[in-house]
Design brief:
Cofactor: [4Fe-4S] cluster
Largest sheet: 5 strands, parallel
Enzyme class: oxidoreductase
Strand order of the largest sheet: 10-9-11-1-12
CATH class of the largest domain: Alpha Beta
Bound molecules: iron/sulfur cluster
Oligomer: single chain
Keywords: 4Fe-4S, Iron, Iron-sulfur, Isoprene biosynthesis, Metal-binding, Oxidoreductase
Protein name: 4-hydroxy-3-methylbut-2-enyl diphosphate reductase
CATH topology of the largest domain: Cobalt-precorrin-4 Transmethylase, domain 1
CATH superfamily of the largest domain: 4-hydroxy-3-methylbut-2-enyl diphosphate reductase, catalytic domain
Structural class: alpha/beta
Shape: globular
Strand content: 15-25%
Number of domains: 3
EC number: 1.17.7.4
Order of helices and strands: HEHEHEEHEHEHEEHHEHEEHEH
Radius of gyration: 23 Å
Helix content: 25-40%
Length: about 375
């Protein structure tokens, strides 16, 4: 267990606040909804796959759980470990304290950096406070950080396509602030000022809309023809795969339900992509109780997906609610198989190895004493 040192009191806590999602005030019975339906015929669900947890989210959540097991509560986490209300609430119940900044963490305590990554300045501030840290940054975000550092060292200017203010973008920007300009979308391209249009590279946030990013890059290349591409795609496999799956489901759906939190970039993008690809209506919900049954009145076919930070249990609850309203026929629409697994952060692997080694010594000791 980590022992907070009390000599340097932490700043007044500004713990991460999670807005309460709106829940429909009155539930309507399935018969009432059926009577008001604007269609006849069988209802069905198209369940997009892949959906839900990606390898980076799984790794980050397991890292926090293992830290709790190894050190005991409290374990501090800077920002939401992943952008999902259910995950954050569940970990809070187990003894995790989510904070906005390192100055809220008692000196010497254990702090986990979230999957979205942090800037070198944040790491430095944690070191200055003597915090023990576990870096749960997704390896695919770390890859983008490394690219930023490498291009900045080669004196490139970096056009970082992403959402200003998003934690991941703050972290990547912080690797090379002097060399980086954030580009929120195609509408900003004309205002960008660069020192040398022949020494430019673009990088991106990992969870953007694939199509919108390409639109931004096309506009950038029209303006800066010598703009260099990143060495490999920055938009990650999980984001691309979930968008590809919902593109397939959306044209046949009267309603698409995206399970995911409002601050989850990839979940919000899924709703946008669903509408863009033909869903007549799309709604994002944190959990099943947020679904308004009146949405079903015009929806013979409902598409369902979930963001990369959403545990499957939440999708299961949505499917159970849909079944109650006559949508028991569920067809999974699979567009890719995923088998990527990331190893745990090195700090937690080392801690677990130490525990194993101690256990071995203990077992050996017992054997010797027989
Ligand atoms: S969405 Fe992509 S970048 Fe983000 S944690 Fe998952 S795998 Fe990593």
């Amino acid at each position: 267990m980590t022992t907070p040192v009390t000599s340097d009191a932490p700043a007044r806590p500004r713990h991460v606040s999670i807005p309460t999602p709106i829940v429909p005030p009155k539930r309507r019975a399935p018969e009432e909804i059926a009577a008001a339906s604007t269609f006849s015929g069988e209802r069905r669900v198209l369940l997009a796959a892949p959906r839900g947890y990606c390898a980076g989210v799984d790794r980050a959540v397991v890292a926090v759980e293992k830290a709790l097991e190894r050190y005991g509560p409290p374990v501090y986490v800077r920002k939401e470990i992943v952008h999902n209300r259910h995950v954050v609430e569940t970990l809070t119940e187990k003894g995790v304290v989510f904070v906005e900044e390192t100055d809220e963490v008692p000196e010497g305590a254990l702090l986990v950096f979230s999957a979205h990554g942090v800037s070198p300045a944040v790491k430095q501030s944690a070191e200055d406070r003597g915090l023990q840290t576990i870096d749960a940054t997704c390896p695919l975000v770390t890859k983008v950080h490394r690219e930023a550092v490498r291009f900045a060292k080669q004196d490139y200017e970096i056009l970082l396509v992403g959402h200003d203010g998003h934690e991941e973008v703050e972290g990547t920007y912080g690797e090379a602030p002097e060399n980086t300009t954030i580009v929120n979308g195609p509408w900003e391209v004309d205002q960008i000022e660069v020192k040398d249009p022949d020494r430019l590279v673009w990088l991106s946030q990992t969870t953007l809309s694939v199509d919108e990013t390409m639109e931004t890059v096309t506009r950038l290349k029209e303006r800066f023809p010598n703009l260099q591409d990143p060495p490999s795609d920055d938009i990650c496999y999980a984001t691309s795969n979930r968008q590809a799956a919902i593109k397939k489901v959306a044209p046949d759906s009267d309603l698409v339900i995206v399970v995911g939190s409002a601050n989850s970039s990839n979940s919000v993008r899924l709703k946008e992509v669903a509408l863009e690809y033909g869903a007549r209506r799309a709604e994002r919900v944190d959990f099943a109780a947020q679904i308004d049954e009146t949405w079903f009145q015009d929806a013979q076919t409902i598409g369902v997906t979930s963001g990369a930070s959403v545990p499957d249990v939440l999708v299961g609850e949505v499917l159970r609610l849909l079944e109650d309203y006559g949508y028991g026929d569920v067809e999974e629409v699979v567009t890719a198989e995923e088998d990527i697994v990331f190893s745990l952060p090195k700090e937690i692997r080392k801690a677990l190895q130490e525990v194993e080694a101690n256990d071995d010594v203990g077992r050996g000791g017992r054997r010797r004493s027989r």
